[in-house]
């Protein structure tokens, strides 16, 4: 375990109990380290928790290297339990990073947790594994901003990039479909649209980039393509895709579009009768339209 200095960053106002709390927390860390080395993780968790609580009782703000070490060590214990508690370990890593942003170990453990979560989802054929790999990579990139030559972070980042590139080849990304649609070169607009929207909905990793490439505006333009107005299947597919995308944008908090955009969307949907009215009712039930338009 990390043999940190017992430094706790000074608070804005001196606390007479701080030195005593640091002493108790340091002793708890040492006891926890001994238990950790013996693989007695539950006992180590008790000791690290004792040190954390002691510091939090006197610190005005939850910052300091000692506090960060305690959180990070406790995270390792949660990871080492016979039934790992990865969610609690992740919370501790994030708290450890907040306590001391220059201490890289909580970031490295955070990357390991996200990589493990991604692997579990991938093995279970569950969605979201690419988002977890991206979180793991983000943590390693932060380490490299602190220490550009950190060999562990460099190796981890290289490994995760390779995994992500392999998975992108397997599952695909929305961008080739978006490019084809935007350039008017798609041989099957509805099929390409379904693939792009499906990947947008499936993986958060691509959502911000899709919004930047104006996926909603592309869908809106297709919805208003007068040459397609007689193709009911096509228009229903586009309108359904648009309302799904806008719902996700609302849920993710990507509020990049003014209210007038939603008014235009609502007007376009209402203008295509009876096809779009059914889509509009479905969108309202799903919460896809802006609240002011319901």
Series of H and E elements: HHHHHHHHHHHHHH
**Low-confidence stretches at least 5 residues in length (pLDDT < 50)?**
5-12, 288-294
Q: What's the end-to-end separation, in Å?
A: 56 Å
Overall pLDDT metric: 79
User: Helix segment count?
Assistant: 14
Identify the CATH architecture of the largest domain: Alpha Horseshoe
Number of domains: 2
Please bin the fraction of helical residues. over 70%
Indicate the proportion of strand residues. under 5%
Rg, please? Answer: 25 Å
CATH class of the largest domain: Mainly Alpha
Q: How many strand segments?
A: 0
Sheet/helix structural class: mainly alpha
Q: CATH fold name of the largest domain, please?
A: Serine Threonine Protein Phosphatase 5, Tetratricopeptide repeat
Question: How is the main sheet built?
Answer: none
Describe this structure in words.
The protein starts with 17 loop residues before the first helix and ends in an 8-residue tail after the last helix. 70% of the residues lie in helices and 0% in strands. The protein has 14 helices and no strands. The chain has helices spanning 18-37, 41-56, 65-80, 86-99, 105-123, 129-146, 151-171, 175-182, 189-202, 207-212, 215-223, 232-252, 259-271, 275-286.
């Amino acid at each position: 375990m990390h043999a940190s200095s017992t430094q706790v960053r000074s608070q804005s106002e001196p606390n007479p109990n701080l030195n005593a709390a640091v002493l108790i927390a340091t002793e708890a860390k040492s006891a926890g380290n001994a238990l950790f080395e013996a693989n007695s993780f539950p006992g180590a968790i008790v000791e690290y928790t004792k040190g954390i609580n002691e510091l939090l009782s006197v610190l005005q703000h939850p910052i300091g290297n000692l506090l960060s070490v305690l959180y990070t060590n406790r995270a390792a214990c949660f990871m080492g339990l016979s039934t790992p508690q990865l969610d609690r370990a992740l919370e501790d890593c994030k708290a450890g990073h907040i306590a001391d942003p220059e201490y890289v170990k909580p970031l490295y453990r955070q990357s390991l947790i996200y990589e493990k979560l991604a692997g579990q989802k991938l093995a279970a054929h569950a969605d979201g594994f690419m988002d977890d790999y991206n979180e793991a990579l983000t943590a390693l990139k932060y380490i490299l901003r602190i220490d550009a030559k950190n060999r562990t972070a460099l190796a981890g980042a290289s490994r995760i990039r390779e995994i992500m590139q392999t998975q992108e080849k397997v599952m695909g990304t929305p961008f080739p479909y978006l490019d084809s649609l935007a350039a008017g070169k798609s041989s099957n607009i509805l099929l390409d649209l379904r693939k792009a929207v499906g990947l947008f909905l499936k993986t958060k990793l691509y959502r911000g980039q899709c919004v930047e490439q104006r996926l909603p505006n592309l869908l809106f333009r297709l919805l208003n393509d007068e040459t397609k107005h007689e193709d009911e299947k096509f228009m229903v597919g586009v309108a359904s895709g648009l309302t799904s995308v806008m719902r996700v944008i609302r849920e993710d908090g990507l509020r990049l579009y003014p209210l007038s955009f939603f008014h235009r969307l609502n007007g376009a949907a209402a203008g295509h009768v009876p096809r779009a009215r059914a889509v509009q009712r479905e969108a309202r039930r799903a919460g896809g339209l802006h609240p002011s338009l319901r």
